[in-house]
Description:
The chain is an alpha/beta fold. 35% of the residues lie in helices and 19% in strands.
Amino acid sequence: MKLRIDVISVMPRFFQSPLETGLLSIAEKKGLLEIHVHNLHDYGLGRYRQVDDTPFGGGAGMVLRPEPVFACIEKLLAERSCDAVIFMTPDGARLDQPMANRLSRLGNLIVLCGHYKAVDERIRKKLVTMDISVGDMVLSGGEIPALLLMDAVARLIPGVLGDSESALTDSFQTGLLDSEYYTRPAEFRGMKVPDVLLSGHHRKIEEWRRENAIRRTRERRPDLLDKDILEEHN
């Protein structure tokens, strides 16, 4: 099944290069992903296609007006069914691998990129079904988070990656960081590849990678380790 993503942005040209190169381009060329970027200014108000205004109650910054966003999203919803209307925002649910897995199995997503200080809250209450954050920081807009979301989701669609098993062994898929990896030469500047990886013994290699992943996770992201994994390792 093809996944369609409609992206709404005040900076549509921002997506031009990323969508023409790399994994997202590959996914589209394979017919597994379809991405449409919509310029919110096309739905703007008046002669200058205004999409923002000052906030009621005062304060710094500008706020996206509801009229252009409602017009754009309602037009998209009238054309086809949608599984989720996503708003990229710092106060959303944290994007992680399980969420990316779930989104990759859907058929049609709308992604609204915030900009300026905020969006009118009526947009979120009436139209948005998922608020997603990519981290505890504030960016200039939702375009970079939207690209991050699309890349994380696209690589999970069956057939996008040349090696279908690659995405299944990535960090976080098992609740752990991935293990270390090595390639040729077997020795470089006095640094040797672990003997077990050269042994050809698949069971021992898998055991080593599992132990290595747990150790790396314990050192770098101990918050990911649950009690069952710790007890199994101990």
